[in-house]
Amino acid sequence: MEKQAISDIIYNHIFAHKQALVEQFTKSEKTIGYFYIDNVLPEELALECARVFPKPKEMRLLKSIKEYKHVSAQMNKHHQLLEAVIYAFQNEKIVTLIGEICNISTLYPDDSLYAGGLSLMAKDNFLNPHLDNSHDAERERWRVLNLLYYVTPNWKQQNGGNLELWPNGPKKEPLEIVSKFNRLIVMATHSSSWHSVNKVTIDGNRCCISNYYFSDNALLETDKFHITKFRGRPNQKITNLLLDCDSSLRMLVRKIFKKGVRKNPHVYKK
Fold first, then answer.
1. Which of 30, 49, 241, 252 is most deeply packed, by most CB within 10 A?
2. Rounded distance between C-alpha atoms, residue 184 and residue 145, angstroms
3. Number of structural domains the chain divides into
4. Secondary structure letter of residue 188 according to DSSP
5. How many whole angstroms separate alpha carbon 187 and alpha carbon 223?
6. Residue 233 maps to which CATH number?
C-alpha cells in the first residue's frame, strides 16, 4: 500500500475520534499530556508490519544501565512497508490534526528520523526513566511530541515492555500504558515529561514504529535546553546516583560544544 493511502487511513481514523482525543489530552496536559487510540490501521496491514519487522540482529543494540533495546533509523535496510508507515505519520494533514488535538499551533515532522524510527525490545530489555533531548539535532526547534505506534500482535500488560509516564516525577509511581497491538500513543515531551519502558518479561519482541514532532516554541515557558537525562527507578539509588553524574557531565560538555562532540548516529542517512 502506498504511503498516501496509509496516511488517509490514519487521518480518517484519528479525525473520527478527534473530540475524545482532545478531552483525553486536555485532562492530562497539566502534567504529561498524552492520548492513545487503538485500531489505527486495518488489522491485516498492522499484522504485515509485525511480520516484516527486522530481527534484533538486524538492528543496533543499545545496552547500558540506562537502557537495553534494539533500534534502527536506516529505513532503506528494512521492508519498504515500514518506511511507508513511518512517513505516513509525517503527512501534513496528520501533523496538523494532531497539533489541533494537542493545541500546538506549529508542528514539524522529522524527515531525518533523529532518535526516531524502529525500536524492538526482547526479553529483559528496558528503558529507564528519562527526559528526551529538548531539541532537534541542530538545536533549532523544540522536541514537543513523541508518537509511538505498536505492532506486536496479542501484546499483554503482563508481558512488560509497556510505556510508563511519571506525572509526579521519577520518585513517585508511574502510569502504565500497554504497548497494545495497533495502538498509537502520542505524548508531550518537555522538561517534566519523565517516561520509561518497563522490562520485557516474556520470550518475545515488542516492536514499535516511532516519530517525533518539533515546534518553534517549547511546551512549557520554563523549558530550557537539556540533553537526554536518565534516572534510576525509585528503588535504584546507586543507579540513580551514577546517572545523575552522567547527565551532569554530558550537560557540561554541551555547554562547551553546542552540538556535542559527535553527531548522534541514530538518523536516516539517505
1. 49
2. 12
3. 1
4. E
5. 16
6. 2.60.120.620
| Cα–Cα distance for residue pair 100/80, rounded to 1 Å | 30
DSSP letter at 158? Answer: G
Tell me the C-alpha distance between 180 and 119, whole Å: 15
First-to-final CA distance of the chain:
22
Is residue 251 in a domain? yes
3-state secondary structure of 155: coil
Answer whether 98's CB lies under 8 Å from 17's CB.
Answer: no
Task: Report the C-alpha gap between 34 and 126 in whole angstroms.
Answer: 21
Query: What whole-number distance in Å separates Cα of residue 87 and Cα of residue 6?
Result: 9
- Give the Cα separation of 36 and 139 in Å (integer): 28
Contact 46, 149 (CB under 8 A): no
User: What is the overall mean pLDDT for the chain?
Assistant: 94
Residue 264 domain-assigned?
no
User: CA–CA separation, 57 vs 75, rounded Å?
Assistant: 15
Task: Please check whether residue 107 lies inside any domain of the structure.
Answer: yes
Average pLDDT (25-34) is: 97
At 186-234, the pLDDT tens digits run 999 999 999 999 999 999 999 999 999 999 999 998 899 988 999 999 9
Task: List the domain range (segments joined by +) for residue 243.
Answer: 3-256
CA distances from 220 to 32, 52, 143, 157 (A): 11, 39, 12, 32
Tens of pLDDT along 49-81? 999 999 999 999 999 999 999 999 999 999 999
C-alpha cell at 95: 501533523
- Look at residue 268 and tell me if it is in a domain: no
What pLDDT score does 84 carry?
Answer: 98
